[in-house]
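Hi,

I'm pasting everything inline rather than attaching a file, because the server keeps stripping attachments. The sequence lines come first, and each chain or strand is labelled.
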Amino acid sequence: MILAYDPATNPLNTNEWAFPLCECFHIAAFAFSIGTIALIDLRLFGWGLDSRSPAQLLRDTEIWTLLGLAVVITSGLLIFSSDPVHYLGNGPFRFKMLGLLLAIVFNYTIHRKAVLGNLAPAGRMAIAAVSLALWFSLVFAGVFIAFV
Amino acid sequence: MTDIATTVRESNLLYPWIMTLHLAAIGLFGGLILMTDLRLLGVTMQSTPAPEVIARLRLWKRLGFIVMVTCGILLATSKMDTYYPNPYFQIKMLLLTLVGLHAIVFHGSVYGKSAPATGISAKLAGALSLLLWTGILSMGRWIAYYEPPK
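And the predicted assembly:
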């Protein structure tokens, strides 16, 4: 079934604007997901919307984060389907998939606990830094997929 | 400036690295703009007054904007002869000009230091900002797909 799949018949490869449109959704959606997570990370550093507690901020933004992640993954899968063999053999792509898994697990476990609990400021900041670094590495790998 | 542009063009790694920073700034700055716009539209963070959201995120949005635009200029000038005649690049620049106009028009009613940021002007500012930035993002992507007539 998978072996019989021919990317040449994929609408993403036959329609001129389907691929760039997917990329637009991908970028807009990561602005949503990474942007809302970054807002919380800034707050963990004591910056940005510091009149609200990190927990309040999480309640306000988590639905947008989730929505962003859903769209970013859906559009990403579509982009992947345009040339699976190429992506599977691409170093930055593999790095990105591993990073994505780590970032999502981190975000919904350790990061979430730090946001909702009463960790010492140093611990909060360390977790915010790891979170920002993880999401940044995904952007980095995403760009480099096209440059290797 | 031309020296920097030449260096970026001729380096294999510099271009994608600047692109990474450009996109990371979109993640941060774009995300903050989105949240501000959605707050102006009244669909998120309702318990925080809009002027407070604007005031506390002002510095970060500016910082993100500076990184984003600096990287954008470096990317564009490194390949100016292909960017300049590209219609999607031209539309993107036009939309960026409109963003500047948008900031000036809504300064007193929405974005300024003692602006009320409520009512119809806040909603209008949020909706227009969303439209403009969605357009800028899309045009930015389409730049790469334009093939000049031979």
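Chain B has a mean pLDDT of 92.

If the labels don't parse on your end, tell me and I'll reformat.
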